[in-house]
């Protein structure tokens, strides 16, 4: 059975990629409801769900990441595995670097308006996405 014909329910990478993709798309759209009047790259954003700080650029990033995850998850095991791994690695880096930004969250370097809650969420996403990319669907090589 080729990686494209493995059903979504039989591939952890496809399932997680699709779910995370849909969630990140939703979060990206909802983010715009709290960023009216916030500068595109302002370090001080609006609070999504009362805890996660976002600005319009952060929302666009969520939309792009969500679309990549969703498209890969709906495409094939190898695409989902590759995108999950790449996004997981990027979120791991962002989660770690974010804690250094937390020392001065109003710094212009914080162009995604990240706060501590964002850092933990990014690390959690990294663990799930990276973990499934590394540990599941072993018979399929990731080729993105």
Report what the structure shows:
The protein is mostly helical and 144 residues long. It has one domain (11-38, 45-135). Helix content is 59%, strand content 4%. It is built from 4 helices and 2 strands. It has helices at 12-31, 56-75, 77-101, 116-135; strands at 46-48, 52-54. Strands 1-2 form a two-stranded antiparallel ribbon. A hairpin with a 3-residue loop joins strand 1 (46-48) and strand 2. Helix 1 (12-31) packs antiparallel against helix 4 (116-135). The longest helix is centred in the middle third of the chain and has 25 residues, at 77-101. The model has no long low-confidence stretch (mean pLDDT 92).
Helix-strand layout with pairing:
Layout: H1 12-31, E1 46-48, E2 52-54, H2 56-75, H3 77-101, H4 116-135
Antiparallel strand pairs: 1-2
- The pLDDT mean sits at 92
What is Rg? Answer: 16 Å
Helix content: 55-70%
Number of strands: 2
Gist?
By secondary structure, the chain is mostly helical.
Characteristics:
two-stranded antiparallel ribbon; elongated; 4% strand; 144 residues; mainly alpha
